[in-house]
Amino acid sequence: MFSRDKTTLPTADKALPGRPTRPFGVPETHAVLGTRLEGQPPDGLDVAYFALGCFWGEEQMFWKLPGVWSTAVGYAGGITPNPTYEEVCTGRTGHAETVRVVFDPSKVSYDDLLRVFWEAHDPTQGMRQGNDLGSQYRSVIFTTSSDQQAAAEQSRKAYQIEMNRAGYGDITTSIVPLDDFYYAEDYHQQYLHKVPNGYCPIHATGVQYVDDGAASAS
Q1: What tens digit of pLDDT does each residue of 128-140 get?
Q2: Given phi > 0 = left and psi -120 to 50 = alpha, else beta, which region is 157?
């Protein structure tokens, strides 16, 4: 199990079997924002899902944004139902570490979240972020509507131009409709609030969007 190449996504016949229900509990409320973690968001709010490496630091980055109502971490893009963190780490579930972001579009737009996504990691690294190696660390935008899909694809095209200008290679980020999102264990939720000295590197490239929607290298 543990000697398998973790950078190759498993096929359905090779994935771990999982289970019909979640084998652990999840807190009812966000440890920082006090909002609920599960269930449908209040009227007028929207939800976005991003995978960009270690989800501890990425979640903290999103919950600090004005207009973000709640965040949670979990697993998306895989095969195994209701996986555990240990199973995801084997590379045999197919999931990526993912942040669920519930936001108020009147205060922070989906395009704003996309800019944060691109700026907070290196989207050219494939099945890794820095020294974190494996399919669970791959870059993915999971969309929940045709509008999100179109906006994400447009932003990837624009960002690719600027990444190339800055000397980076091709973006490997996948943009796919969300299938299932499985919440991660209690101790992963708002981890860096609970463990202030916890380590979770951010692999920003220094390529940033400017006000007109283009991008530049800083």
Answers
A1: 999 999 999 999 9
A2: alpha
- Residue 27: helix, strand or coil by DSSP? coil
Residues 183 and 203: their CA atoms lie apart, in Å, by 24
Residue 59 structural domain: 46-217
User: Residue 90 maps to which CATH number?
Assistant: 3.30.1060.10
Report yes or no on 14 lying in a domain: no
> What is the Cα–Cα distance from 132 to 199, expressed in whole angstroms?
12
**Residue 34 burial (C-beta neighbours within 10 Å; 0-12, 13-18, 19+):** exposed
**13 part of a folded domain:** no
Active site residues: 54
Instruction: Please check whether residue 185 lies inside any domain of the structure.
Output: yes
pTM, two decimal places: 0.95
- Residue among 174, 115, 183 nearest 142 (CA): 174
Number of domains in the chain: 1
Whether residue 106 is contained in a domain is answered as yes
What would the two tokens of residue 117 be? 């996504």
SS3 of residue 92 by DSSP:
coil
Strand partners of residue 133: 128
Q: How far apart are CA 139 and CA 171, in angstroms?
A: 9
